[in-house]
Amino acid sequence: MKITLKVWRQKNRDSKGAFKTYQVDHASPDMSFLEMIDVLNTDLIKKGEESIAFDHDCREGICGMCSMYINGHPHGPLQTTTCQLHMRSFKDGETITVEPWRAKAFPVVKDLVVDRSAFDRIQQAGGYVSVNTGGVPDANEIPIPKIVADEAFDAAACIGCGACVAACKNASAMLFVGAKVSQLALLPQGKPERKQRAERMVAQMDAEGFGSCTNTGACEAECPKGISVTNIARLNREYLGAMLTSYQVEVGGGE
Amino acid sequence: MIFLNDQGVTFTHWGHFMGTNPIIRTLEIGLIIGFLAHIVQGLLLWRANHAARPVKYGVAKKPAGTWYSRSMGLLGTLLLLFLILHTVHFWIPNRANQFIHGEELPLYQMMFEIFSNPWIVLIYVVGCISLFWHLLHGFASAFQSLGLNHQKYNGIISFVGIAFSVIVPLIFSLMPIAIYFEWIN
After folding, report:
1. What are the Cα distances from residue A80, in Å, to A2, A129, A252, B59, B142?
2. Residue B64: which pLDDT band, with cuts at 50, 70 and 90?
3. Structural domain contains residue A174
4. What does the pLDDT read at residue A136?
5. Which of residues 48-77 of B touch A (CB under 8 A)?
6. Residue span of the structural domain in which A76 resides
7. What is the pLDDT of residues B120-150, one digit of tens each?
8. Contact B58 A230 (CB under 8 A)
9. What backbone torsions phi and psi does residue A24 show, to the nearest 5 degrees?
10. Which chain B residues touch A99 with a CB distance below 8 Å?
11. Which residues in chain A are closer than 8 Å to B56, comparing Cβ atoms?
């Protein structure tokens, strides 16, 4: 396959970037999109040019590292991660435009790499269950209905890739936060801290500069893990409930 | 009520009720405050959401979801223009007259005068169509934003939302249309 690539090149956080056009003459339809970039990078290195910086890790579709906004969609035309996107999804001779995620809360570090540590800080604000030391409880001690466990598991499938933010016209992180709040709010282990969790994670989300949800549903359609916007409704429910009834008066946010 | 075609007897009766009943007048103030709060909040939301993506994408494909759910600002602006025109036609002169002279204006006759202009009728119809799209997203969206939806009730929320968004703007827009085409005389 012959592919023309228009790739966003940007030296660092502060410099002004621009699209640069590259030719890939020997792309196999069985290559993943990342492997195709690997081939291009090898060529660039041989020519003495700087390779294209991009995020990647597991290449199995479970780590959430690979980003890339390909031809107007996060992770490209399929509802999957970029590492699981293959060149057979494109036409021979096609021009493909590759950009980094665009959001104020995800500043570009270099080329296609963005800083997604905003997600880490939201998680650190409350996306956990405090575990006290002691004996390990029996696995079957706490009964959880299957349907609830399934719902929590679906929410927990979120890999934190940021495609929801990239797809949203408001660069809102509500699907991510909704999934992270939901997976714990649904389970008995997460219930004791549910109010402070909702308040703190939402405060951190706002402090990071993400936009607000206007219920267009673009996130759900682009999420490689198929996280449902039902989780956003649950987040809203959790947050409003916490606002009205929590003991915590002070809500921080920010560093 | 104009569709009863009784020379405006019923319309004028209830128009008088709406214009003079103290409960309705109090609700009217609440409605105005609600509208203003909704407009201000909508504009602030629009500004914050634009600021959340300072650098736009080079290639923008049509995203999933409906065009009208992404166009609340545009539809809202069209609605606001319609609302301004509508209040300038009826509500403002009527209330001003009530305040100054203590009398209501003949709203029924005014309708026939104003809706004889095809451009005004067209603007009213466009306003009602905007209202339809605005409500079609807004009704269900409000339940989602307040976290009040539930798998068990999503069907009925969707049904009531669609029915409300169709029926209300349809009846509103039929008023200028019916008068312009002289279905009512």
Report:
1. 23, 29, 35, 19, 30
2. confident
3. yes
4. 78
5. 48-49, 51-61, 63-66, 69-70, 72
6. 3-110
7. 999 999 999 999 999 999 999 999 999 988 8
8. no
9. -115, 110
10. 57-59
11. 102
Residues A222 and A185 in one domain: yes
State whether residue B155 sits within 8 Å of chain A by CB: no
If asked whether residues A124 and A93 sit together in one domain, one would say no
Q: Looking at the whole model, is its pTM more than 0.80?
A: yes
Helical ranges in A90-193 per DSSP H: 117-126, 146-156, 163-167, 174-185
**Of A163, A169, A170, A192, the residue nearest A179 (C-alpha):** A163
Do A148 and A34 reside in the same domain of the chain? Answer: no
Q: Select the residue of B54, B57, B145 nearest A99 (Cβ to Cβ).
A: B57
At A103, which CATH number? Answer: 3.10.20.30
The reply to whether A24 and A87 lie within a common domain is yes
Instruction: Report the number of distinct structural domains present in chain A.
Output: 2
Beta carbons of A80 and A59 less than 8 angstroms apart: no
Sorting pLDDT into bands at 50, 70 and 90, what band is A248?
A: low
Q: Does A15 touch chain B (CB under 8 A)?
A: no
Query: Mind telling me how many Å the CA of B153 is from chain A's nearest CA?
Result: 13
Distance CA A4, CA B72 (A): 37
A170 and chain B: CB distance < 8 Å anywhere? yes
DSSP string, A71-88: TTEETSSSSS-GGG-BGG
Checking if the pLDDT of A59 tops 60, the result is yes
Same domain, A134 and A104: no
Complex-level ipTM = 0.86
* Strand spans (E) along chain A: 3-9, 18-24, 69-70, 73-74, 95-99, 108-110, 113-114
Report the sign of the C-alpha dihedral through residues A223, A228, A232, A238, in that order.
Answer: negative
Q: What's the confidence (pLDDT) of residue B99?
A: 87
